[in-house]
Amino acid sequence: MRILLIEDEPLLGEAVAAHLHKLHAVDWMQSLDAASEAMRTVDYDLVLLDLNLPDGHGLDLLTSVRKSGQAVPIIIITARDQVRDRIQGLNAGADDYVLKPFDLDELSARIHSVQRRAIATAGPQQTIGDIVIDQAARRISKGGVEVSLTAREWAVLECFTNRLGATISKAKLEEVLAAFGAEIESNAVEVYVSRLRKKLGSEAIRTLRGLGYRMDR
């Protein structure tokens, strides 16, 4: 998944981002303006939203996102522990409400729970030829045999499966890989596409010279 973390406390933000980077791509923003700009240019799989931010209230962003029709899962992370605050957040469209301080492993479990519900609501498993992808369970098989993917390989694959039939530019795939926080080599996209082809079949991902890559329906 690609996650947007909106948190202005440096120590907490750094800890959460580092923890989630083990399995996900994470963009960490510390203000509503930066977060809003990021959401205009990137399709996130999930948002972690603090409420008390230096340039406004997180509920304003949540309300705006829901009014625009975006269904991206949003988990509120906040120290506001009053029942009325939780009710207000959930009624505004939050998918979960996590109180600070929280255990990082519990946060990961909440993220996966919310994402499983979102994927289950979106539709069934994807079948592409003899490849079966179950994003809710994060399982993939080819010809009935389960295939193991790393977190980065999953991120690249999801970029294709979320846009089947569309051409994905090299720049977009580089953006997905770079979001994991480590420097990437100039040939990183080619390396990960090659790894996926070895695991899923050379015909799984097509190269369109000068344009990018595509996974057909």
Describe this structure in words.
Helix 6 (151-161) packs across helix 8. With 217 residues, the chain is an alpha/beta fold. Helices cover 42% and strands 23% of the residues. The chain has 8 helices and 14 strands. The chain has helices at 10-20, 32-41, 58-67, 83-91, 104-122, 151-161, 170-178, 188-200; strands spanning 2-6, 25-29, 46-49, 52-53, 56-57, 74-78, 96-99, 126-128, 131-134, 139-142, 145-147, 167-168, 206-208, 212-214. The protein is globular and about 55 Å long. The strands form 4 sheets. A 5-stranded parallel β-sheet has the order 2-1-3-6-7, sandwiched between helices. The chain has a 4-stranded antiparallel β-sheet with strand order 8-9-10-11, with no helix packed on it. It has a 3-stranded antiparallel β-sheet with strand order 12-14-13. It starts with a strand and ends with a strand. Strand 4 (52-53) and strand 5 form a beta hairpin. The model has no long low-confidence stretch (mean pLDDT 89).
Helix count equals 8
Spatial strand order of the main sheet: 2-1-3-6-7
Strand content: 15-25%
- The average pLDDT is 89
Q: Kindly state the number of beta strands.
A: 14
Shape: globular
Largest sheet: 5 strands, parallel
Distance between the termini: 21 Å
Which structural class is indicated by helix and strand composition? alpha/beta
Radius of gyration: 18 Å
Low-pLDDT residue spans: none
Helix/strand order, N-terminal first: EHEHEEEHEHEHEEEEHEHHEE
The helicity comes to: 40-55%
